[in-house]
């Protein structure tokens, strides 16, 4: 589960594609900026999404943040473990802190997303 | 949420300590302050379980002196100040002619006057208000820049503080103060706090703040002391149902609406706003502060609508996730008469709320000190 396989958005979501399903989460940088995450609103399976739609809401003690879907597709599953332990997003943002799985719409183009190196440069600059 | 260095932002004497501890620094009322260090939830739980240390040096302190000082302050504040003898402290408020809050504050009765401790965000406004409304032979001096302030809070506060001072702490009652040497520095030491736990606030010269901070962190290490930021300060006070100026109180809210008639004495002679407050009570207030807990998942936030069916009956003023209750809690102004059955509208969804008596958290160690 290497970070190297991930794609990133400018709005700090990460994406890992296996077959036609993408797993999506929040980057380590974003979880650090948010602080202790105390609540995650999980998306409903079956919901259709377009790229740029609000995927879900993640709340820290002090703030409410929206996650945006990087792709067109349909929600397969939200990470139910986040209901009881939302803080796993803070402790393991790329592993157990995954947020949703989305079935990619046909012909989805991922070329607009950033590589790990590009994303790291983006947050530094 | 990147932190930026603003040219005008002020730093407390402990700024380097916060940076060395890896604090997330934010601009609060023009001050660079630590929002959190290890994390709001862990800091909050640390204060409730053993002890934490806060830098609250950004707050304002004024000293009122002169033979007419008491009379002048009684005209400016809502509570009965005359009962507070030297060594005691009173929670009070200043109101305008309409009964609206200028600020809430603590008043320390000193030998030759009174020290007022005010909210950081209101320091300049409050100083101007006091200065221009003092009557008789009384003067006010703003000593904020000469005063640093750290707060030690938690059930283990007394054993920690006793390692760094010879002052007799076991007899220092809640809402009392003494002059004390702490870590060899001269201080005003009070048994006060904004967390609902036992604790102390230490007023010192900014030149001594670092010595005192390090001495308390060292003394507290046996109790797993942690530095605590403004984020946890807010979750701790909200669990106690304490009002915050700018949230539950502002110049358009009055004591009867805010649930603060317990500090407002209408039988103590005239004070600015007295008649307006008395009239409000006679007419009946249209809204009052209510505390509530969310029964389902969700976190209330300031501005969220409070609904009774399709009817908006109020707005949330403060809301957060309570680390102790592990539920959403909040305060809000609600139409008088509505005391149950309401919901909070969170992003277009209605989440049922249960009206709760305050404090939300009932196991604070401060209760054992209130003798």
From the structure above, extract its key features.
heterodimer, A: 125 residues, alpha+beta, OB fold (Dihydrolipoamide Acetyltransferase, E2P), three-stranded antiparallel beta sheet, 19% helix, B: 371 residues, Gyrase A, domain 2, Alpha-Beta Plaits, Elongation Factor Tu (Ef-tu), domain 3, six-stranded mixed beta sheet, six-stranded antiparallel β-barrel
How many structural domains does the protein architecture of chain A include? 1
Briefly note the CATH topology name of the largest domain in chain B. Answer: Gyrase A, domain 2
Summarize the biggest pleated sheet of chain B. Answer: 6 strands, mixed
Q: Taking all residues together, what is the mean pLDDT of chain B? A: 96
In the predicted model, the low-confidence regions of chain B spanning at least 5 consecutive residues are none
Name the average pLDDT of chain A. 92
C-alpha geometry of chain B: globular
Q: Write the element-wise H/E pattern of chain A from the N-terminal end onward.
A: EEEHEEEEEHHEH
Largest sheet of chain A: 6 strands, antiparallel
Biggest sheet strand order of chain A reads 1-2-3-9-8-5
Beta-strand percentage of chain B? 25-35%
Count the E strands of chain B: 20
Span between N and C termini of chain A? 26 Å
How are the strands of the biggest sheet of chain B laid out side by side?
A: 11-12-13-10-4-14
Identify the CATH homologous superfamily of the largest domain in chain B. Probable tRNA modification gtpase trme, domain 1
How much strand of chain A? 35-45%
Helix % of chain B is 10-25%
Termini separation of chain B: 44 Å
Based on the structure, what is the oligomeric state of the protein chains?
heterodimer
């Amino acid at each position: 589960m290497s970070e190297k396989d991930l794609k990133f958005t400018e709005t700090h979501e990460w994406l890992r594609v296996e077959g036609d399903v993408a797993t999506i989460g929040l980057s380590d940088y974003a979880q650090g900026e948010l602080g202790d995450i105390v609540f995650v609103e999980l998306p409903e399976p079956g919901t259709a999404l377009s790229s740029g739609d609000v995927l879900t809401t993640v709340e820290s003690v002090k703030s409410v943040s929206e996650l945006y879907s990087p792709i067109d597709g349909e929600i397969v599953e939200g990470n139910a473990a986040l209901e009881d332990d939302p803080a796993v997003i803070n402790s393991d943002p790329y592993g157990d802190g995954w947020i949703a799985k989305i079935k990619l719409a046909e012909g989805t183009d991922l070329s607009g997303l950033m590589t790990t190196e590009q994303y790291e440069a983006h947050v530094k600059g | 949420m990147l932190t930026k260095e603003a040219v005008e932002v002020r730093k407390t004497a402990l700024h380097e300590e916060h940076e060395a501890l890896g604090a997330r620094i934010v601009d609060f009322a023009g001050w660079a302050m630590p929002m959190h260090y290890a994390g709001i939830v862990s800091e909050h739980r640390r204060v409730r379980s053993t002890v934490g240390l806060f830098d609250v040096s950004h707050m304002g302190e004024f000293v009122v002196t002169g033979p007419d000082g008491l009379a002048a302050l009684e005209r400016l504040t809502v509570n009965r100040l005359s009962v507070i003898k030297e060594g005691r402290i009173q929670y009070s408020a200043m109101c305008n002619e309409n009964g609206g809050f200028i600020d809430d504050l603590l008043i320390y009765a000193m030998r030759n006057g009174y020290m007022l401790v005010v909210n950081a965000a209101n320091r300049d406004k409050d100083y101007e208000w006091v200065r221009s409304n003092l009557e008789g032979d009384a003067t006010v001096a703003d000593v904020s820049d000469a005063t640093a302030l750290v707060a030690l809070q938690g059930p283990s506060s007394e054993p920690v503080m006793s390692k760094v001072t010879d002052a007799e702490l076991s007899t220092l009652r809640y809402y009392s103060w003494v002059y004390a040497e702490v870590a060899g520095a001269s201080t005003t030491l009070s048994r006060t706090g904004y967390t609902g736990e036992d604790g102390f606030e230490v007023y010192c010269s900014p030149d001594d703040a670092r010595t005192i901070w390090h001495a308390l962190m060292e003394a507290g290490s046996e109790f797993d002391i942690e530095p605590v930021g403004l984020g946890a300060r807010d979750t701790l006070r909200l669990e106690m149902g304490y009002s915050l100026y700018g949230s539950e109180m502002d110049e358009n809210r009055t004591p009867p609406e805010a649930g603060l008639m317990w500090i407002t004495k209408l039988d103590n002679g005239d004070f600015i706003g007295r008649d307006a407050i008395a009239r409000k009570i006679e007419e009946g207030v249209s809204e009052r502060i209510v505390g509530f807990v969310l029964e389902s998942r969700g976190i209330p936030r300031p501005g969220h609508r409070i609904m009774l069916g399709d009817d908006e009956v109020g707005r949330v003023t403060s809301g957060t996730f309570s680390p102790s209750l592990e539920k959403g809690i909040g305060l809000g102004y609600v139409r008088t008469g509505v005391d149950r059955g309401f919901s909070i509208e969170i992003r277009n969804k209605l989440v049922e709320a249960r009206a709760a008596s305050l404090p939300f958290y009932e196991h604070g160690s401060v209760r054992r000190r209130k003798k």
